[in-house]
Amino acid sequence: MKVNYSCPKCKGLLNIGGHLVFIIKAKTPPRKGLIFLSTEIGDYKVIKHPYFELEDGEKTDVFCPICHFNLKCSRNKNLARIVMTDADHNKYEIVFSRIVDEKCTYKIKGDEIIEYGKHTSRYGSFRKLLQQDYPFKNI
Q1: pLDDT in tens, 64-91
Q2: From start to end of the chain, where are the E strands?
């Protein structure tokens, strides 16, 4: 088994051929589309339809393409969360930015938090909250 990513609600698999698939909704003006992100944590390449325009700095809503569950993180309104299962069946919470072109991802298991991306410093209060509230609930 390779690494798999799933929806925290329906447990549906979100990765296909090295990409994660999400429904994205942007608010102003209202628009929606599918995006593909790399399954490699720290790789911030995005594949989307050329007519689905997103502006840097814009906050989006991220949804499971299977059950349409809003993946927003309950601990920080700018973050989304999914579950990763590695080849050894270890489960991790993957928390990533909902802000277009913001490079910030957390890989969380137990009390271990690994940060990826140049914008993680923007979320120091989120990391402190997690460290103070272990074991984490309702990320």
Answers
A1: 999 999 999 988 999 999 999 999 999 9
A2: 4-6, 15-16, 19-26, 31-38, 46-48, 60-63, 79-85, 91-97, 105-109, 112-116
- Can you tell me the distance from the alpha carbon of 128 to that of 8, in angstroms, rounded to the nearest whole number? 23
Q: pTM for the whole thing?
A: 0.91
How far is residue 38's CA from residue 17's CA, in Å, rounded to a whole number? 9
Identity of the amino acid at 92: Y
The predicted-structure confidence for 5-53, as pLDDT tens digits, reads as follows 999 999 999 999 999 999 999 988 889 999 999 999 999 999 999 999 9
Residue closest to 34 by CA, chosen among 45, 26, 23: 23
β partners of residue 21: 36
DSSP 95-119: EEE-BTT---EEEEETTEEEEESTT
The pairing of beta strand 91-97 with beta strand 105-109: antiparallel
Q: Is the pLDDT of residue 102 over 90?
A: yes
Question: DSSP label at 132?
Answer: H
- The residue assigned the tokens 């906050």 is 59
